[in-house]
Amino acid sequence: MDGQGSPALHRNDLDYVKAVLDGVGRSMYGLDDVVRLLIVALYGGGHVLLEGNPGLGKTQLVKTLCASLGFGDERWGRIQFTPDLMPADITGTKMPVNGDMAHFAFQPGPVFRWLLLADEINRATPKTQSAMLEAMAERQVTVLGETHSLTPETSVSYGGRSGMLRPPFMVLATQNPIDQEGVFDLPEAQADRFMFKIRMPFPSAAVLSQIVRKDAGLPAAKAGGESAKTTGNEDEALTRFDRIRRAIRALDPPPVVCDHIVNIVLATNRGAAAGAAGLERRAAEELDEWSRRYIEYGAGPRAATALMLGAKGWAGLFLGGADQAGAALAHIALPVLRHRLKLVFDWERRFEEDAKKRYREAPLGRDNRHDALLADLVLRTAPAEAGYRDLVRQSLRAHGAVLPDR
Fold this sequence. Notes:
By secondary structure, this protein is of the alpha/beta class. The chain has helices spanning 11-25, 32-43, 58-69, 87-91, 126-138, 188-191, 205-215, 234-250, 255-267, 281-294, 301-319, 325-337, 347-358, 366-380, 388-398; strands at residues 47-51, 76-80, 92-97, 100-108, 115-119, 140-143, 146-149, 154-158, 161-165, 170-175, 194-199, 295-297, 342-343.
């Protein structure tokens, strides 16, 4: 369980991340865990699905995060997805120059932002979503046969040094629950491009009271107010982004964490659990039976990469270093897996049957049951290395996961 000696992030950069959290928290209440996942995705180069009912503050969250990071107001954008939205409405297109129909120049669309809110993305047609897929996967758009980069190198001058850095590009897509009218599942290829699927929590009574007082112009119940930029210099913010991103990628977690990640992905693909590392033969056989009972279509290599980058990011930014990647993995695994696994059509009936035998109190609600199923998977796949499985169990429970009693 010892770390591999990889360097921790610089204290100044950790203080910066804490300041970002504080900046968002001054105007967005009760979303600390959501914001942490967004920050991990940003530095991991991933995109995020935000699922929740309308009115939970998803748009304001993205705007506030951009300001707290120290990015300029023009660096975030919002696209409202509707069934009649066309690809050119997102990517931009060629337009006449000064009205001259003989000369055309490319006019960038609203996708050209560092942080992009794709609002109600599951209302768009597949044709429009394919344009978003290219942007998310390749960091570029193709318009009339020409490609245009979404992350062109930008001149940066900070701390007496100058150079060229690539800015971030992160899509934060809001998704209304599938049981609402007029929405549909994202294609598997596009859903897999999202690093996390985060469920926006409904506010508690205390948080709801704070929101009402703020929005109604009443005195805040606690010190706060509008969020402020963490830095006044966008070049500094971009330099920090590049430095933190590189530092997270350089972290080297314990080998058991990599084994656990490989086990998770193998276990979701029928017949592959036999290759799981660190599991006793009987445990591997039960894992294979479990997979065949619940999973129709499993996770792939991109899920494994998301699990590793997410674990390294959470461990490095919030837990003190790479040696804590096991505890971090237990926390970020559910957001990574929620949208990637296709379960058998009657999984809920099967889960309820099993819950009567294995859970003291069966998880209530579809989302609760789904997360409980994923938490069971994460625990089943944890290698039986000294203390590691207990660490995973403790971390899952600490973050609210429902685990079976046996």
